[in-house]
Amino acid sequence: MGTAGLPGAGRTERSRIGRVVALAAALAALGCGDGDDLDSDTEARWAYLGFDRAVDRALGLGFAGFNAATSANIPVQEAAGDVSGTITVAGQVDQGASANKEMRLVLTLDGYADGAVDDPVTAGVVEEIAITYDTDSAALPSLDMSLRDIPDGTFTGTLAGEMLLSGDVDARAVFALSLSGGLMADGDDVVREPGTLTIVGTVTSGDGTYEVHVEK
């Protein structure tokens, strides 16, 4: 005989369903932190915010390679992330005595992470956000720069390509950034002029896009 006609059968069924729903909610909560619960716009935004410090680091490595170059190939430059991993810059620079130079560089990221960042959209600090960046050796992101009126002129450039994210964001993110700023002499070297860097462009992840406009 079925249970539908028994006293309390409805309550028993509702209780069972309630336990199933509660279990599903608990399992979903356990999955938080792996990025699966984030919408695409948030993924794209965090993808840039977690990499903002690395943009400065990549530019610094590019200029270090430029100053150390004795041939078209710059010496490979590498630096550690604030938390883990490395970022490496390699490539070529124009030779000759011209005051205008072009650099064609590529970035390699290996377990690179800089740690906690602020998220202005959520009006507060995103504490303990952990995003790690890697790259595919078959499709490295590019960092191209044009230096004008060296040593005290200006530079423009682009940082473009795909990065693999893990941690609080598990995704592939495509960066399409334009860079500009001033140049200055530092002894015999050419460096970026502090406080003149502008970064604009987009970062996309899935269906989400983050519009970047940073001045620092």
Could you explain how this protein is built, in words?
This protein has 216 residues and is α+β, with helices and mostly antiparallel strands. It has helices at 9-30, 40-49, 52-68; strands at residues 77-80, 84-93, 101-113, 117-119, 124-126, 131-134, 142-148, 154-167, 171-186, 189-192, 198-205, 208-215. The strands form two sheets. Strands 1, 2, 3, 6, 7, 8, 9, 10, 11 and 12 form a ten-stranded antiparallel sheet that branches. The longest helix is centred in the first third of the chain and has 22 residues, at 9-30. The termini are far apart.
> How would a textbook summarize the main sheet?
10 strands, antiparallel
Question: SSE string, helix = H, strand = E?
Answer: HHHEEEEEEEEEEEE
Number of strands: 12
Mean pLDDT: 85
Radius of gyration: 24 Å
Task: Describe the structure concisely.
The chain is an alpha+beta fold and 216 residues long. Helix content is 23%, strand content 44%.
Which tags fit this structure?
216 residues; 44% strand; two-stranded antiparallel ribbon; 3 helices; disordered N terminus; globular; 10-stranded antiparallel sheet; single chain; alpha+beta
Write the layout of secondary structure elements.
Layout lengths: L8 H22 L9 H10 L2 H17 L8 E4 L3 E10 L7 E13 L3 E3 L4 E3 L4 E4 L7 E7 L5 E14 L3 E16 L2 E4 L5 E8 L2 E8 L1
